[in-house]
Amino acid sequence: MSARRISLLVGACAWIGFGQRSPTSATDSLANCLKGLPTCDVSTLTPSQVGTVSAAFKQRNLSNCTAGIGACDPTVLTPAEATAVMAATRRQNLEKCMRGAVDCDPTILDAKDAAGVRSSRNQRNLNSCLNGTSQCDPTALDAKSAAAVQAARHERNRGRCLGGLPECDPTALTPQEAVAVSASARRRNLDRCKAGSPQCDPTVLDSQTTAAIAVTVRRRNFERCLNGFSPCNPLQLDDSERKAVGAQILDRNFKSCIQGSPNCDPARLNAPQMALVADAFRQRNAARR
User: Fold this and answer.
1) 3-state class of 261 per DSSP?
2) How far is it, in rounded angstroms, from Cα 55 to Cα 29?
3) Where are the domains of the chain?
């Protein structure tokens, strides 16, 4: 076969392959065009498919415009569609304004909606002021709301003072409230003193309470010494307490020696205890063999 004939055959095959489109490729392209994907090849569409894709685009654009999505092209909307989209836009904007969203556009509100938004904004501000949050704008309160906010602020301060919180402003208390706050502070201090807290202020205790606290402190010290806990002050023990603590110390020491503990002090063992400790030592050694 001549070289010229081979060249003609190759060219014909290439032309046939270029002129024919595979059904799969055309189907995929139509699906991509219907979805508005960048892989859409409009050159593969038949005239009827062009109309279908155009209708899909318009429907997709209408949905985007109605939802307020940036991919909306309002210039291709029909007058009826544009009217519906504007109604949806106003409704969405009203919802944003009612909840105080930053993307609210108050300029497109009608008089009725503007009044509703103003009422909602005033209520949000009132709630913020009543709760003492930083979003409160006291200048936007009317006389009735301002009085309610002042009462709420006073009650919050009274609660803080009764609880001994550092945010308390004692100068804002009434004389009766100041008396109640002082009594509450004395009760808290008494509880701290009874518990042995370092925040106890004994200088504000009366003589009767001081005596009662001293009894509590001595009892707590005796229990710590009895159990071998720190801090124990043996100088605060009376004779009977020292005897009880001494007996407990000997008993704890004997148990430590029996167990082979490093806390054992053999000098504190009597003869019978020493014999028992030696026997326990022999039994432990025998068990290890």
Assistant:
1) coil
2) 16
3) 18-77, 206-289
Instruction: Determine contact, residues 89/101, Cβ cutoff 8 Å.
Output: no
Q: What is the C-alpha separation between 148 and 142, in angstroms, rounded?
A: 10
Q: What are phi and psi of 46, to 5 degrees?
A: -80, 165
Residue 107, C-beta contacts closer than 8 angstroms, at least 6 positions apart: none
CA dist list (Å): 163 to 45, 168, 182, 187: 78, 9, 11, 11
Three-state DSSP string of 226-250: HHCCCCCCHHHCCHHHHHHHHHHHH
Taking the C-alpha atoms of 44, 47, 51 and 52 in order, what is their torsion angle to the nearest 10 degrees?
Answer: -50
Distance, CA of 175 to CA of 179 (rounded, Å): 6
Tokens coding 21: 């489109």
User: Taking a C-beta distance cutoff of 8 angstroms, is the pair 113, 106 a contact?
Assistant: no
Residue with tokens 């001595």: 218
Q: Is the peptide bond before 231 cis (omega within 30 degrees of 0)?
A: yes
Please give the distance of CA 159 from its chain centroid, rounded to a whole number.
24
Kindly report, residue by residue over 263-287, the tens digit of the pLDDT: 899 998 998 989 999 998 888 888 7
Helix (H, G, I), strand (E, B) or coil at 198: coil
Question: Rounded CA gap, 106 and 122, in Å?
Answer: 15
Cβ atoms of 170 and 154 closer than 8 Å: no
The model's pLDDT over 180-232, given as tens digits with 9 standing for 90+, comes to 999 999 999 999 998 888 999 999 898 888 888 888 888 989 998 998 888 88
